[in-house]
Design a protein that fits this description.
Shape: globular
CATH class: Mainly Beta
Order of helices and strands: HEEEEEEEEEEHEEEE
Strand order of the largest sheet: 2-3-4-5-6-7-8-9-10-11-12-13
Number of helices: 2
Oligomer: single chain
Distance between the termini: 15 Å
């Protein structure tokens, strides 16, 4: 999934106002990187408008539409980088390897999920931890193929009665990623394909899939999740740069929970989940300093 970092707003009357702000920001916006393929501005400021349909959680048979406009910062520094997926610090890199600190997360789940009726809400989850990338073709080519291994500590975040942060366990995975910038460069298209394997400890899986005896019913028996394999995913992202200031993005992901250690939880209603989202991206300001392009912002 795209990483929503706990920010979620239902689709409402904000969208017409958002469209107006997009048109105002887009007009006359500069973008210096257009004249040098393979390079990007050191930093960008803009507005990221995303609409997506997501399952309540992996294995849920219900989906929800999320829509939110938010400002974004992209920074492509040598040691610190930020994009729409979060902030990461680069600890070490050479021609084929890169180690970094990355952030991720998931939106909250309200108690209107039928499978969790009568159970507590699931708070937003924030994740932080190290990641290692191994670039098969090296870090220099415009098109990149790499394997990423990551491990993150997860914590739930709630503001119901003041800020509350509770540790929820460890999550990680292995992802094979191909990012292409050259094949459709003349058409101003770039795309990214990723296949991932997910892992988690008992605490992390239990947060989503445990059923305590207090909340057990004849149709929802008590259940305790285990650590281990958490399913696979296949995702595709594409971005079309309509103008130097305005881009249209598309994201889709297929999640497969078959064989996962939590697959027999009564909260898992289906093994296959699909995520689909579109984004309108406006670059309001950008640096005149250019740096080599990363795989896919």
């Amino acid at each position: 999934m795209p990483n929503l970092d706990g920010r979620h707003l239902r689709m409402n009357r904000r969208l017409p106002a958002c469209a107006l702000s997009l048109s105002l920001l887009a007009e006359g916006t500069p973008c210096s990187a257009e004249s040098q393929p393979g390079y990007e501005p050191l930093w960008e400021l803009g507005l990221f408008n995303f609409v997506a349909t997501l399952p309540y959680y992996r294995g849920s048979d219900q989906t929800k539409v999320y829509a939110f406009p938010l400002p974004y910062l992209v920074y492509r520094g040598e040691r610190v980088r930020a994009n729409r997926e979060g902030v990461r610090g680069i600890f070490y890199q050479d021609s084929r390897f890169e180690t970094s600190l990355s952030l991720s997360g998931n939106p909250p789940v309200d108690n209107d999920a039928e499978a969790r009726e009568g159970m507590p809400d699931l708070d937003a989850i924030g994740e932080i931890g190290p990641a290692v990338k191994w670039y098969f073709l090296g870090r220099e080519p415009l098109d990149k193929l790499y394997l990423q291994a990551s491990v993150r500590a997860a914590a739930s975040v709630s503001f119901d009665s003041g800020a509350q942060v509770v540790y929820r366990g460890i999550v990680g995975g292995l992802d094979l990623v191909y990012a292409n910038r050259s094949r459709f460069r003349d058409q101003h298209l770039r795309f990214r394909v990723a296949a991932g394997l997910n892992l988690g400890n008992q605490g992390y899986h239990g947060y989503f899939y445990d059923v305590a005896p207090t909340y057990a019913t004849p149709a929802r028996p008590a259940y305790s999740a285990e650590a281990g394999y958490g399913g696979t995913s296949l995702s595709f992202s594409m971005q079309y740069d309509m103008t130097p200031a305005l881009s249209l993005g598309f994201y889709s992901r297929w999640d497969n929970s078959a064989g996962a250690v939590f697959a027999d939880s009564p909260l898992v209603r289906q093994e296959q989940n699909f995520v689909v989202g579109v984004a309108l991206i406006v670059r309001a300001l950008s640096s005149h300093t250019l740096v080599p392009a990363e795989e896919f912002d």
